[in-house]
Amino acid sequence: MVLKSADLSREERLVELLSTGGIAIMPCDTIYGIVGRVPDTEARIRAIKGRGETNPFLMLIESRSAVERLSDVRLDREVAALWPGPLTVVIPAREGGTVAVRVPSDPFLRRLVACVGAPLYSTSVNRSGQPPLGAISEIIREFEESVNVIVDGGDILGREPSTILDVTQRPYRILREGACRIPPSLLR
Q1: What average pLDDT does the chain have?
Q2: What distance in Å separates the CA atoms of residue 7 and residue 30, rounded to the nearest whole number?
């Protein structure tokens, strides 16, 4: 099913779908993303992408304070000031390992996460090893049969994905250059 971004029932339909384990493709601030509720949808998203490796997906969270549910880390003020925005931050996970989180700029996305009541996995719309898709006609052609809904926000071309910053050690490390410019003071 394809929904237009302007569809007035979009939020209600997405909350219901994502709350019950469905998968959606939608604009996610920077580029289109495949999204699903954590932790129920990980295996299905991996299958859709053809992603066999165990690299974790980033999680969209509704606010800076949501970090407290996932980690004991206290974010550096300068890092926290970059949220909401196109910055994914890798932090130590409460149960061991790490987790990558982002507070999106789009108020609709933040509200959606809050209404679902859990973080949402988000990953680029592409098959593993291929470049991300931004033309809505290609996304529909390639993925309509694989997901529950596609939100048509028009073509999103030429945008960078989020920057990924690892803050698990000093100096912080940029794992992926993207749409957020990291102040040099954070990299020393």
Answers
A1: 93
A2: 21
pLDDT given at position 188:
84
Q: pLDDT tens digit string along 130-170?
A: 899 999 999 999 999 999 999 999 999 989 999 999 999 98
Per-residue CA distances from 41 to 27, 58, 99, 131 (Å): 18, 13, 16, 22
Query: For the chain, what are the domain ranges?
Result: 2-187
Under CATH, to which class is 2-187 assigned?
alpha beta
Confidence (pLDDT) at 129 = 83
pLDDT-based confidence at residue 16 (cuts at 50, 70, 90): very high
Q: How far apart are CA 91 and CA 74, in angstroms?
A: 9
Token readout for 117 is 């009541």
DSSP letter at 33 equals E
The answer to whether 121 and 59 are in contact (CB under 8 A) is: yes
Which residues in 20-94 belong to E strands, given as ranges? 23-28, 31-37, 58-60, 87-92
Residue pair 70/91 in contact by the 8 Å Cβ criterion = yes
DSSP secondary structure code for residue 118 in this structure: S
What the block records as the tokens of 76 is 């550096």
